[in-house]
Structure formats: C-alpha cells, structure tokens
C-alpha cells in the first residue's frame, strides 16, 4: 500500500512552505515511511542531475544574480503623465465616460422609439379615420374612370404593353 502523504506535504516540504509544526511532523513521517523517503531521495537525485551547472551549460555571473535580486526586491514605482498619475483620476474619468455613453445611448434609443411611435400613430390616424372629402374624391375618380370606358359600338385601339417599372396594387382583391 502506497502512502499519499508525499502528494499532500512532500513538495511543500521541499519548497520550505510548510509551517514549523508541519515540517517537524513530516520529518518524523520520513523516518517511518519508506515510500516517502524513497520519493525524497528520487527528488534529490533528479534535482542534482537536471539542475546543475553542467546540465544548464552556463552559470550566471555572481554580479548579475545580485543585480536581478536587488531589482526584484525594490518596490515598483508607477509611472504616469501629469494628473493621470493618480489612480483615482483614471477611475473617475473612466466612470464618467461610461456614464456619458450610457446616457447618450439611452437618449438615442428613447428618441428613436418616440419618433417611430409618433409616425406610426400618424399613419394609423389617416387610415382609420377617413374623411368625407376622401370618399367624395374616390367617388369622383370612379365616375371619371367609368366615363373613359368605351361605349357599345366604339372601336377600341390596341394598347401597348407597359415598359419599365409597372406599379401593382397588392391590396386589390
């Protein structure tokens, strides 16, 4: 039966990330458990084999290591231009721009909605409420059309077929 304590604590132990009580507990476990001690020995062998100067080909100079460590240890100083250096200014400007964009978009869609409502209401009022003048005009047009029809005995001239775009009344039943 294999021990799973190495998976839980072994790599943390090797990275020195265990607390002092857990470290001492794991060291006691290593003395007892053959499986975990074999894993520890295998880890040391692989580390020695693969993380050596001979395997990595070229060691870094000592002064370069010190310089890298000193640069990484310094706190980062943010850079910026003028008033934009302050982080709260960036947050306020971004929030204001998002708000202005939202108000503008909302206003645009509201205006378009009311424009469409008013234009469709205008069209519906013209269609649903015909006036007497419209009926009189339609009757006069119908009378004129009846008068233009040929009477009995009159010769009808052949009509040329229309060319180009021909308007078609789709509402005609």
What does this structure look like?
With 173 residues, the chain is mainly alpha-helical. It is 66% helix and 0% strand. It is built from seven helices and no strands. The protein has helices at residues 5-14, 20-32, 34-50, 53-56, 62-73, 87-128, 132-148. Helix 2 (20-32) crosses helix 3. It is elongated, with a radius of gyration of 46 Å.
Which blocks of ≥5 consecutive residues have pLDDT under 50? none
Mean pLDDT: 78
* Helical content band: 55-70%
Distance between the terminal alpha carbons, to the nearest Å?
90 Å
> Structural class of the helix and strand makeup?
mainly alpha
Instruction: Describe the largest sheet.
Output: none
Shape: elongated
Radius of gyration, in Å, reads: 46 Å
Output the number of helix runs: 7
Question: What is this entry, summarized?
Answer:
The chain is mostly helical. It contains seven helices and no strands.
Task: Considering the chains and any ligands shown, give keywords for the structure.
single chain, 173 residues, mainly alpha, 66% helix
Task: Please write out the topology.
Elements: H1 5-14, H2 20-32, H3 34-50, H4 53-56, H5 62-73, H6 87-128, H7 132-148
Helix pairs in contact: 2-3
């Amino acid at each position: 039966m294999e021990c799973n304590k190495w998976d839980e604590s072994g790599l943390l132990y090797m990275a020195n990330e265990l607390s002092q009580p857990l470290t001492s507990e794991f060291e006691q476990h290593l003395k007892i458990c053959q499986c975990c001690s074999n894993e520890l020995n295998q880890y040391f062998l692989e580390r020695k084999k693969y993380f050596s100067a001979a395997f990595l080909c070229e060691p870094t100079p000592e002064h370069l290591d010190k310089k890298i460590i000193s640069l990484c240890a310094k706190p980062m100083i943010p850079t910026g231009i003028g008033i934009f250096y302050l982080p709260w200014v960036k947050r306020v400007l971004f929030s204001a721009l998002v708000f202005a964009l939202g108000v503008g978009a909302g206003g645009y869609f509201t205006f378009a909605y009311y424009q469409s409502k008013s234009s469709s209401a205008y069209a519906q009022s013209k269609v649903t409420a015909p006036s007497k003048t419209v009926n009189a005009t339609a009757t006069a047009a119908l009378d004129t059309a009846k008068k233009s029809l040929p009477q009995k005995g009159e010769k009808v001239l052949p009509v040329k077929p229309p060319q180009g775009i021909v308007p078609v009344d789709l509402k005609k039943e």
